[in-house]
Amino acid sequence: MQSPILDVRPLGFPWETPNPFLFCVHHRDTYPAGNERLGPAASLAGRNLGEDFTLKDGWRMYHGKVVPGFPQHPHRGFETVTIVRQGYIDHADSLGAAARFGAGDVQWLTAGGGIVHSEMFPLLDREQPNTLELFQIWLNLPSEDKLTSPHFMLWSHDIPRVTAVDGDGRKAEITVVAGSLDQRRAPAPPPRSWASRADTDVAIWSIRLEPHAAWTLPRAHHPAVARQLYFFQGNDLRIGGETLASHASIRLDPGAEVPIVAGATGCDLLLLQGRPIAEPVVQYGPFVMNTRAEIERAFADYQRTRFGGWPWPADDPVHPRDQGRFARHVDGRVEKR
Predict the structure, then answer these.
(1) Architecture of domain 1-6+160-279 in CATH?
(2) Buried-exposed string 238-263: b where 16+ CB fall within 10 A, e elsewhere
(3) Hey, where are the domains in the chain?
(4) Phi/psi at 232 (nearest 5 deg)?
(5) Which neighbouring-strand residues pair with 185?
(6) What CATH fold (topology level) applies to the domain 21-157+282-315?
(7) Where do transmembrane segments lie in this chain (predicted)?
(8) What are the C-alpha distances in Å from 258 to residues 1, 263, 297?
(9) 278/26 Cα distance (integer angstroms)
């Protein structure tokens, strides 16, 4: 029988992604207790504040100087999908939208023609450590939708979670952020997303297997998709008849079922899948377009308009400590969780 595995590579940083995806990172920071400003109650001495990407004492400040995270920065031409496994993110943007999300929430943001946003990591617990774990995934937009209107979206408890039980009673849980599994479909993606098209078969699944659990990844619905599986947590994994003893990025045959068996510690996987966008990709920093001229236009537009300006009093706004999970949309509608 032909192996469903087409290629195996070590996980790098960021993770290699197939078209139509552009970028994927997995962040896990074991932040200490928080201080009165929602930053770490610990010394920041020895850190390159503003560019702190070194995992010192188990955590990083990234571009933050008081609260860890990413103060205001622009995007154009693609979408960000942020899956928060632990901890919280405070969002603010140039459209006036805002949110605090976490505990399994997913934010899907269409940058489209241009948006400025901040993503800060408030350390809410003043007594206990504040672990943050998330994926951020960039999904490309086709040329006809590169300059679509920006769209802000937050998903929470309505994300399907499919539980499969093997013959020995061991479980696999699959969180369906995009796509469908076992007749359970994720909420509709933003209206101009590549994932909103019926023939693109975009899937984003977070998969957790209990120790020694067995589960079979079904075939893709569309034969022409790119399919990548990331093994990022657990000691070992048996997949398609092969054993992997280290974390890896695995390119799979979309037309094959793929049997997966977790090792003694269980495992966590991420699946990214979709039909490639058959267009050139030109990326420069936060802008992803089809030509160099379009990149230059993006910079010029941002310098001229700031994509609507920044309606917040600071570049790194955070919400009050006692603010629960919420989303305030551009139209003023507020959702609370």
Answers:
(1) Sandwich (2.60)
(2) bbbeeebeebbbbbbbbebebebbbb
(3) 1-6+160-279, 21-157+282-315
(4) -125, -5
(5) 180
(6) Jelly Rolls (2.60.120)
(7) none
(8) 12, 16, 44
(9) 27
Contact 214, 241 (CB under 8 A): no
Q: Measured between alpha carbons, how far is 145 from 305 in angstroms, rounded to an integer?
A: 20
CA atoms within 13 A on the CB side of 335: 17
- Per CATH, 1-6+160-279 and 21-157+282-315 having the same topology is answered yes
Give the separation between CA 141 and CA 134, rounded to whole angstroms: 22
Q: Which two tokens stand for residue 144?
A: 């006809």
Q: Is the separation of the CB atoms in 202 and 20 below 8 Å? A: yes
Query: Whole-angstrom Cα distance, residue 219 to residue 201?
Result: 11
